[in-house]
Structures are given as C-alpha cells and as structure tokens.
Amino acid sequence: MKESKVKVLLVDDDTLLGNGVVEELNNRGYETTYMSATYGVSEAIQQFSPDVLIFDVEIGKDNGIQVAQALFKGNPSLPIIFISSHHDDERKEAGLQAGAVAYIDKPFSVKLLSAHIDRFTRMTKKKPESSEQIMPIGNIQLDISNRALIFANGSIVDLRQMEFNILKELIAHYNDVVSRDQMCYAAWEGQSVYFNDQSLNNYIHRLRILLDKDTDLEIQLHRSMGYKLKETKK
Amino acid sequence: MKHKFGRVLLVSTLALTALLVSQGIWISKASMQKKSEQKIGFQICFNQSISKLVNESMGKNLADSPFKIEPIDSIPAKNADGKTPKVIDAGHVTADKNVSVMIEDALIVMQLDENEFHLSKLDSLITACVSENGKLVFSDIILYDSLHYKKIDEIKYNSDLFKKIFGKTYTAQRLIKTSDKLYLIKAEYRIAESEYIQNMGIATFASLIASIVIISVLFYLIIILKRRYEEILNMERAFHGAIHDLKSPLAYVYFTLSLLEEKETDIVKKTALSVTADRVTYLTDKIIRMLKSGRNINIINETEKQSVSLYDVLEQIEAEMHTMFPAKKIVFESNMDAEMSLRVLPDLFEASIRIVIENAVRYNSNSPIVEIGAIRDVDKMRITITDNGIGMSKQQLKNIFKPYYTSDTKNGTGIGLYYAQQIVKAHGGIISVESILGKGSTFILTLPILPKV
Fold first, then answer.
1. pTM of the full structure
2. Which residue in the set B251, B258, B315 is minimally distant from A202, CB to CB?
C-alpha cells in the first residue's frame, strides 16, 4: 500500500456505471468516493479533500456545469474532470470555461479515466515512480500504464492494444526504421499465427490519422524497409 | 418560430389600426367642413331672428311708429296728449358704436320694460332657420338681467337621448346694452348630424368592432399555435430524452467491455472485445447523430462533412455483413488504394454503401463474392460494387431507384436503394447500375471530391 493514494470524488447519477467505475478505480490503487447526486458535494469536498473531482455534466435535472462552476469558485485548485454523454461542442466549451481541466465523452473506458486522473495528479503530486509509466516523444506522451496517448493540448486518446504495441515499438526506435516483421511481432506480441498484413496497414493508417492532428510527429514509409517515426518537417 | 407569431399580430394590428385611423380622419374632415359652415350659419340665424323680432314691433310707416328717435334733451316732459313719454336712453353715439345696434338694443329694452318681448317668439324664429340644417334635438334660450344677475326667462326643448349623441351644439349670445340697462340673451341649439355623417359614424363604429374581432381571432389563433408549438417541443424533448436514455446502458456496456478487453490475455479474444467495444462507440455516435438530425437529407452543409476513409467504412460494413448473414460464406475483394478518403456525411455515406453491399449479399447464393473498387479522378471518386448475385431484369432496372419498388415482397421495403440514391444525390453525386439477370449486378457511385464552390 502506498503512503498517499490519489483521492478521487466521483459524482454521477448512473449508479450502475458509477459503482463499476469506483470499484475499478479502487482496484487500480485510487481511493474513490462516489456520490450519485449533487446535493452535499461541496461538504464532501471539505471532508474528503479529493485530488480530483469527476463530475457528470447532467445529473438529474441539475446543470452540472453550473454546479461545478460554484464548486470551482470554492476550490480553485481542485481539478474537475467532466464526463458526459452530451458530445456537443458548446457544452464542452462551457464546461472547460467553467474551470474543468478535461471533458470526457461517455462511453469511456476506465483506462482513459485513469489516464486523465494520472495526468493531473502527476502535475500536483509529482510522484517519482509514475514517471516510468510515461514515454514522452515530440510533443506527445505515451501513457504506458493506461495504454493511452496524451496530446499537448491535454486531450487523451484511448489506444487499442495493437495500436499501442506498434506505437510503443516505433517510439522505442525513434528516428530509426522499423521493419514490418518487427512491427507485426510487436503488435501481436510474438504470436506469429495471427500476423495479418492488411490489419497492420489498417493500424498504421489509424495511427497516422491520430498523429496527423496536433502533433509534430509522423510515421514515414521507407519502401521495402519499414516505417520510421520522426519529427514532421515544417 | 416564436417571434413570428408576435410579428404577424403586430403587422395585422397595425394594418387594421391604420385603416381605422384613415377612415376616422376622413370622416372627421368631412364633418368638420360641414360644421364650420353650419357655425357661421347659426350666428347669422341668431342675429337675424333678433332683428326680425324687433322689426315686427315697428310700425309700417313713420306715423304708425310707436317710438321716435330724438336727442334726449329735446324730449318734452309731457306729450301732447298729456302723458309722460317713455324714454329709453340708448347712450351716446360714438365712432365705435353701431347706431343700428344701439337702436335695436333700445327697442328691446323698451319691449322688455313693457313686457312685450317674447322669448318664445325668438325661439321659434331661431328654430325655423336652424331646422333647415337638420333636425333640432335640443335647445335652450335664456334671458338674463346682467345688472342684477337674474334670470328673467328661459325656454328649453329636449328630444330623445340617442339623437343627442350624433349631434352638434351651436351657441350664440347677444348683449343688450343701454345707458342704464344690461341684458344678455344666450342661445344653445343642438342639431342632429345629417344622415350622411351619421352613417359614416356607424360605419366607423362597425369597422372598429370588426377590427377588434379580427384581432381577437388572431390572438386566439396565435395562442393555439403557441400551444401546439409547445406541445411539439415537449414531444421532441421527450423523444430526445428517450434516445438519450439509450446512451447510459451503452456507456456501461462499453465500460465493461473495455475492462474485459484490458484484462484479457488471449490476443484473439482481446481483439474481438476491442472491436465489440468499438461497435458500442459507433452505436453511441449514431445515437448522438440521431439526436442532432431530423434534418432534411436534401441539404448537406459543406461544414458538416468530414473526411472519411473508404477503407474504414468498408471494414465496418464487411464485419456487419458477416454477422448479419452467418450462413453465407461471403468473400469481399477490394481493389483500391488503402488510404482513399473523401469528404462526406459519415453516417449517411456509410448507409448508402451499406444498402448496396447488403443487397449484393442478400440477393445472392450462399457464397457471394462482392468486388469493391474505387478509382480517383481529378474531381470525383468512382466506387464500383460488383456482385455475382441473381441480377435484375430490364423492367427491374428501370424501377430500381423508385421509392417503394421492390421485387422482394417478403423482406424488401423498396426504400433502401431509393434512400441510397437520395444520399448520393445530396452529396452531389450519381448512382447507376448495370445488371445481367442471373449473373450479377454492378452499382457505380460517383461522388465529387472537391467541395462545391
């Protein structure tokens, strides 16, 4: 048991999902408290003093953004992460303006959520052991423990296992050419029976789309040799 | 939408008000002209009536005359017959005095002194000339002794109330002044408005009532419309709420699937789980798009379009086909550059491709071969979908894109290819088909790549 667990307060009116998230976050070493209504949240913050507040934008009839705005004024140093099934940009904008540090669309995986939590607690707690869990490259970071890609603007993308394996391999050989065989080996973790050229192409294609926006990296094709992760030429 | 109600009401109220105001102005102008004419007429009538009355008391010739106008100091104390003459001092003649008026005043005073002045006579004279202009509805003529503040005589006439409403009152007065007496005759006559003006008044009144009725009806309609609008809004909200509720179980499913995927060590199961989780995300996205939509498919905004990888779309559909037709051994052959993409509305574009591919698989043997090719031109992309299915007759080919046309009365709705055509058309493209009965069909979708300028 670590000396200081990261304390998370989760507020969401979907109790099935909420309880699932709490259980899984606790399994991963967070200390999570769950509330299914906005009533009494500010008291809970006083009592529990969480490191991160995870807040559903729409709880019952309450507008979570307004509630969060009030909470944020009372606790300006508390990072608030919104989770919501409303994906419209206006609401995201409003949420981020209200003082939230991130806005996660539902559905989300617990990996993505913990990647977001880790991002902020790394900033505030500066835990040395967690630095190994991060591979910085260019202006992005690969979150090893949560299998996620962290962009410079703070947005985080949940990677598929194959995509993650390939990207990890490319980052490990940054600026070097990685052959297709090497990539297949990494992707399928050595289980050569499943190697599939078409799927590999597809994963590389997806990674390229991901890296195309807001990063200074690109995957370059070297004919008959393989692929190379390198900085984008301006 | 809400603001329009108010505008409609405002405009119609303004129009009706303008109509009423213009009508009112017209009528008042017409009646004003008439009234000013009548006013002058009444003053003349009043004065002439007094003069007439005075004149009646005068004799036909000088010898008959019961009075003489003489300087006051030349009047003898006794007349020839020994009687004391009755003298009325009319006052001094000065430049600013009208002698005839002075004489008239003196005569009236004399008559008054002798109780010979009959107010009723004056009233009937005025009534006679006033009646030429209209029916008299009210009159009041009063004689005052202004020195003693005393009412000497009054004659009043009053007809029914209704006529009074549409009437006009005329007033005139005359001060009768001698050196030692002061009398005042005050007249107030009310004449019913002429038929013309009266009718106009009724017309204005009627149109005012009509306007009020019209405005009330408008108000009523707008209230009903507003209520309907609210109802529709509420229904929409309820519908959105229902769709929105679909998302929370999906969020849980995704959460659980991603968790299982993370913990799974078998790479095949892991991949299957991640693909399944992706499907849930896809479903959620679809629900979100449904919430946003309800739009007209004929209009697609350039800004709503997104870059879509054809390969991704096909991969998704191919996986769905394998699931939909588990009994069939489907072979997909793709003949295209893996990185082909185009700017479209993702869900609609996918739907159009899915419809064509589903037809290719459904109307086929148990081992369908679907060949998908894409060729990029300068400004358009040509996507060909060829199957080895049952094919179509010439008659079928002619009607294939018509709504509700289907040769499969058991499973088909006849809407699929029509919808696909609508989608392609909305994107500025063309869909066409070639087919040989018994051999198979080829659908060709041509879509523009460059955005419309």
1. 0.54
2. B315
